[in-house]
Amino acid sequence: MSYTKVIPGLVRANSDNIKRICLSQGRFRSTVASKQRKEVEGGKEEQQLVECTVVKAVQADLISQTKNNTDAQTRKIAIDFDNTHEAYKSKDNIELLRSLLVFKLCTFDFLVDKNKELMDLSKKVFGKRLFERLMKMTFYGQFVAGEDHNSIKPLIHKNQAFGVGSVLDYSVEEDLTQEEAEKKEMDSCVSEAEKESPVPAGEHFVMQEHDYSVDHREKKYKAHRQFGDRRGGVVSARTYFYADEAKCDAQMETFLNCIKASGGASVDGFSAVKMTALGRPQFLLQFSEVLVKWRRFFNLLAAQQGKSGMDALEQKLELEQLKESLTKLGVGNKDDIENWFTGEKLGSSGTIDLLDWNSLINDRTKISNLLVIPNVENGQLEPLLRKFTVEEEKQMKRMLQRVDVLAKHAVDNGVRLMVDAEQTYFQPAISRLTLEMQRIFNREKPIIFNTYQCYLKEAYDNVSVDVELSRREGWYFGAKLVRGAYMYQERSRAEEIGYEDPINPDYEATNRMYHKCLEFVLEEIDHNRKANVMVASHNEDTVKFTLGKMNEMGLSPTEKKVYFGQLLGMCDQISFPLGQAGFPVYKYVPYGPVNEVIPYLSRRALENRGFMKGSQRERSLLWKELKRRLLNGQILYKPVY
């Protein structure tokens, strides 16, 4: 079923650049999941962020890298996370003392709460040069690799020598006031057409400041001034605010330089990008609303067939009943609906599932024609907004073009692209655009990785649906699993604005969701070597859970299908033992000029306060290793590599 059949007169797409990333006709076509999973030799890539400890190797029988050689023997590897000698062999004593100092400072509430003000005061008191030197001896030196792509190379090469790779992340942000951030957000998330158009008959505008949305727009997918500063309640993610198209081009160039630096500094490296840096967030908001409403419409039709409450892929709608329902709703006449399914080869099995349903959305020359939603009351497909300006059309296309450019450069430089997750009101669009890149660029190996936030109630459905699509279409699935960075902000926004809280009820529920998603992907890897996952967690139990499952399934670290990852400067006692045991491990490596990464350093202080107050483990391990070296006369210890 396509819009061209539902809405006659919509213009087909002409731009090759946009077609490659837009939701192309005929891509979500397979109706029944293949029960035969190809068994492919390949690399295994996963990364995980965990609390840190060290490594041991234990002899055991395992399944070989290739599923055809089931009698082959290899090594089952266990990790001793208490072996400080192995954990910190890449650090000299000065680095250990710096870590102890920084982590201790992060436990003092006053210092953490006022860290930004204290850094500004220090800069005035000591002057720029002395301030930068002090920062490089403490917080900057702990959490940031260097000022540019040349100065970070020594650290990257040293980590590589001890088995740890890099995910490069240029961490410079604008240092905006809250008022400036709110203004930028409100200006960039409201359509000019909404501001200028007269109120249509029978509808009304909610006349609040910068809120010009017609009444059928959902509150969740509109900008709200009290949450305009998206940095609020976020401690571990960079935030971009839209200024203009030139700024987006400059940010794309920054990402391109980061990709080139990653390709030149390491083998099989990653580079991190954020969609909100690449265009006006208005499009992400509106496209997200469209995707959610289409899915909700599918759930309504499933409920009519008595199939509500099932996992996403278990909801298979009987085709004849679906046709009848759509006819009754007035979506189309009987002949048209019949052609939608036969002409597009949908429903050949007699049922329609969510992946088939998603194929309703396909490409257009005018990107705004994507923003069409089903009206459940009258059955008509209606535009989300009355119209878009010519400039807004261009802005939407430019965002997709920038995404395409980054993906191509990642391929050319042998770098994998990690698309970061963002707020739930942006995320459906971000995930869909990332999925489109995966369908294009992950045909031969995993290049594009999507990020799944497991504190979301819908995380498992999202992971399972995307894995199933990759299986049907035969491309390499790439995922990074995180717990999530926006919990406090998301909860507060949902409560105040008035929509369902998207977050799991408690930390234990999030842990269960994380392990459920992880186990699902690991099982997919076990049966189909085209899946890849990075386990991004600072939770030691999650790392041990992953290692246990890998051993059970015979997934060897040399396959490079399962990766682990931590932030630079945190949980070295996990990263380095894993790396030295042969597991693919990566550090998220921020870099940028000292004065321009202060917002990043401020968040690291906030994040480490909770981390260090909750566990003395990392500091105790650092002390243990320092004492061991002193007792053994290793006062001037230097790592050898």
UniProtKB/TrEMBL annotation:
Domain of life the protein comes from: Eukaryota
GO CC annotations, alphabetized: mitochondrial matrix
UniProt record similarity statement: Belongs to the proline oxidase family.
A Pfam short name: Pro_dh
Function: Converts proline to delta-1-pyrroline-5-carboxylate.
SUPFAM superfamilies referenced in this protein's UniProt entry, alphabetically: FAD-linked oxidoreductase
First-tier enzyme category under EC: oxidoreductase
A GO biological-process term: L-proline catabolic process to L-glutamate
Listed cofactors: FAD
The reaction(s) this protein catalyses: L-proline + a quinone = (S)-1-pyrroline-5-carboxylate + a quinol + H(+)
Keyword Transit peptide applies: yes
Protein name: Proline dehydrogenase
